[in-house]
Structure formats: C-alpha cells, structure tokens
Write a structure and sequence with these properties.
CATH class: Alpha Beta
Number of domains: 1
Oligomer: single chain
Number of helices: 9
Order of helices and strands: EHHHEHEHEHEHEEHEH
Structural class: alpha/beta
CATH architecture: Alpha-Beta Barrel
Shape: globular
CATH superfamily: Metal-dependent hydrolases
CATH topology: TIM Barrel
Distance between the termini: 31 Å
Amino acid sequence: MIPVFDGHNDFLLRLLTDPARRAEIFLTGEGKGHLDLPRMQDSGFAGGFFAIYLPSPVAHDDADYQARMERPPYTLPLPDPIPFAEAIAPATSAAGHLLWMERSSQGALKICRTGGEVRDCVASGVIAAILHMEGAEAIDESLDALHLFHAIGLRSLGPVWSRPTAFGHGVPFAFPSSPDTGPGLTEAGKRLVTTCNRLRIMLDLSHINEAGFNDVASLSDAPLVATHSNAHAL
C-alpha cells in the first residue's frame, strides 16, 4: 500500500461530541465517518494532523447552510467569536482525547512532537499523529495557553477558522469573493506568529484572509503552509 499522510481531519471533534462511545468509535470502528483505528491500519494511513476544532453555537454546516452554498452566488454570515473562557475547556478535552488515543492504541499510534519522530513512525508502521488547532479561540492573548498546549504536544496552529479570533480574521463563506475581506493580524496575532516560530509550531494559513496571510508571510521565518485550502483562481 502507498502510505498516506493526511493534512487535516476532524476526528477529535467526533470524540468530543460523543465521548462515552470513544472506545467503540476509535478502537472497534463502526465503518462510519472518515477514520477509526482498524481502517487506518488497513488502508496505509501513515499519519496526519488531528485538529482541535470548536463548533460554533449556531452551526455553519446544517442542511440549510449547505443548500445555500450549492446555489451560488451566496454570502453567508460568519459565526460570532467564541470567547477564550468558553473555548479552553472543550479544547483541552479534545487534546485529552488524542492523548487517550495514543494510550489505548497499545503502540499503534504515537503523538509526534518532532519531524524525526514522524519519520521514525512512518518507517516503523506506527501511525504518526500531529496535534493541530484549527482556530485559536483556546489561546489567550498573553499566550500562556499556547505554551500549555505546546507542552501537551501542539505542533500546528491555524490562527483562525473563518470566524474572527483575538489574533486575526478569516475568509467568509461567500462565492464569488476575494480573500481581501478585512484587516490583517492584530498585535496579539503578530506575537502569536513570532512565538509559534520560536516554539516550532507550524502556522496553518487555511481560512485566514488575504491581509492576515500577508502579515504572517512578512513576520514568519518558517515555511508557509495551507493544509486544506481551495485555489482562489478556481
């Protein structure tokens, strides 16, 4: 089998919304959703980025929302920001689920904190899991929580998931639309970029608007990465 490394998945959200059944969902596998341990092992899934993502109180992916997106042109409102005080607990729980996945897999999955660990896992057939955060609502402006999540294993961070955060602004759900939709990084966002560089946390530029992208490009000394973005020209 050709080994596959997944640039982005939302499996932790599935466990976050149904924690009582996480052993059945992950270890046994139901054949539902995109991932579970048996299908990862059977399909050549070498590893991937497991995202901490917090859904908005008002869903952006319900049937009405999806139906409107299938009939362009459309401009759909972005959800309101999620305050840090409301985000930190579920984000910590999501990270805890990945730690549980590592423990319960009995060596089949490992949370990787360095590139060397990823390469070693791929070479030995162990699933390499990278902890990612999609939207930095669970990071406070002092960045204390960034250091907390880094200690847990966070190695990839998207400053926004479309809705605004204390650090920047995302692109709206609109088509046709330019990504030039608002201001760039806040002062806290600029500190976030430089601190992520120092901690060697990859910055994921999917969902961020054009001005924010350009700010990261001018500030960061690391490669620019967008894990799950469409090409604007298409």
